[in-house]
Amino acid sequence: MLYGADYNPDQWPEEVWDEDVRLMQEAGVNIVSLGIFAWSRIQPAEDVWDFAWLDTVIDKLHAGGIAVNLATATASPPPWVSATYPETLPADESGASYWPGSRQHFAPSSPTYRRLAGELVRRLAERYVHHPAVVMWHVGNEFGCHLWMDFSDAARDAYRGWLAARYATVERLNQAWGTSFWSQRYGSFDEIFPPRLAPYSHNPSSMLDWRRFTSDMLLECYLMEREILLAAGATQPITTNFMGPFKPADYRRWAPHMDVIADDCYPDPANPNRVRDAAFQRDLVRSLKPGAAWLLWEQATDAVNWRPANPGKRPGALVAETAQSIARGADGIMFFQWRQSRAGSEKFHSAMLPHAGTGTRTWDAVTELGARLAALPELPAPGRDAQVALVFDWENWWAVEERDHPTEIDYLAIVLEWYGAFHARNIQVDIVGPEEVDHTYALVVAPALYLLRDEGASALARFVDDGGTLLTGPFTDIVDAHDHFRDGGFLTQLGPVLGLRFEDFGALAGPSSGGAGVGGLSSDAVQAAREAAGRGAVTFDLDGAARSGRLVAEAVHATGATTIAAFTSGPHAGAPALTRHRFGSGEAWYTATQPTPDALNAVVGVVVAASGVGPVVADLPAGVEAARRGDLVTLINHSDQRVEITIDGTDAETGVAVERVVLDPQGVAFVTAPARAGTFASAARAASTP
Ligand code: GLA
User: Fold this and answer.
1) CATH for 388-611, options being 3.40.50.300, 2.40.50.140, 3.40.50.880, 3.40.640.10
2) Structural domain boundaries in the chain
3) Which of 287, 347, 521, 619 sits CB 3.0–4.6 Å from 431 for a disulfide?
4) How many whole angstroms separate alpha carbon 333 and alpha carbon 382?
């Protein structure tokens, strides 16, 4: 188990470094991510290099038995870069420059930035690639975290090249973007600009490509550095830190280029759904490399500095959040950062070693956690343990949230609502792309899958045909990979699987409705008109209870499906609201509205019962989270009550056999309890672990 933090000794005088190593040992730290923002210290001027301090720090860490995840330091170019090479600066939508003075002020497509960053990486690699302390490489930092879209001239040139490589001829691009609309036909790639500030909506197909391009530019920066490290002979794992469900970067495309997935996660103590949201994030990053452990690369020991208000964690939450990562596949627990800064924007951010020193609640928590992690036995690799897969797709995210749709959709919020109904039941879930759906899952949930690629559609149909259960909902299977309607209406791919024909969206006015408005109507007026029409929600009956839906009430006609619940109000009262259809050896369910949380929970209850999937541990007290990782079951008590849980197994920390576990609030137990055939993760499914 790796345990440590970002380490920024360049912020401190040399006298502090020995104390750092001594206290790291006391805390149980065995690895640090070193020098992530140290470019200006390593290269104070273009032709001046200073590695002496870094040599000293690395040697001290090595002598102290602390391994180094060496940063390439390219995330914050020094002032001389911006002053000498203004073409490295990114631009906003209106073409105005972002200026230095913060961090991440570089244009990812800028050849000059790449040349300068590449030279830094080459020198670092050549110097340290064989150093025995260096066990891993940390490329850049949180690519795109602050600056995910660059509209500069460097981006313009790169975008034209990227599009030419994608489409070969401008005629094919015109087809893909549907440029006959609004006189947008291009005569050559040189006529294309990034989607800079425009009077009204940009072409949605072009926006989808722009999103693909911006994700690819960030990835190209990572790959450039990775290739330099490999060329210098690096044999250590190379990675960068992800940010969970981060919209600008399609991490599923990035994952094959990471030797190990590393992720940063900062649950908001004020978010009532923080446990659910963090569980989703951890399941997402685990699912990016099935069968492999991942690393929690940054979390906070206590408060952060970057939210409007920054309360600390409640007592015990640090252990509970850490356990959630381990439960869901992490083999490393790291923090931002080792020693709290004295100056700069992050001086109020908590650290392993607080500004107030070692005699603090945080230091005690950090040292206790270090000792507890060190006592853990070697953990099993996370298997493909889940029976349920939730489809979550970046291209769909980009497309479904474009403007000018029947209603505004917050894709991640919808995905989290569906995920939450499984999380609350402690049913384990993998988070996959539609193309990754296969027969090893029993139940697949695919919400709001507006953009459905041909391969994804085939995989979902095959899955049901092979005996799986599919649950999908409104605003699904609307467009192809170019964001075009397909011939033949909507639900063209999944209609036969669902036993449905789709007629109309039936958009409902929601509380957040608004937008630019057209034809002189202000958004307030549009909103008022919609509310006056009384179309804010819709109801349907399920199992004798009245339920409600939001966003849309679609008009679908059963062409083979059975209506399980019908709308009782709204534009399509009497029409199907929830349907079920036998297809091949499996079945497919459809909700024609987005159920509100209670209703969604009821729908999931019905489908779970029909599909036979089960929880990691049955009958857990409310507020207790359970996750399986091979033979290891982790139990976390997020409630305010002391709870008692019946479970047969061995306490993984003490090696003692247990039949029950008692957990205080925020208490955690790791129990080795192999899955029994016929229950969660049956023998047949376990055998399919890659
Ligand atoms: C991100 C960055 C770190 C630091 C933390 C603070 O994760 O990678 O450098 O700024 O946020 O929470």
Assistant:
1) 3.40.50.880
2) 388-611, 624-688
3) 287
4) 16
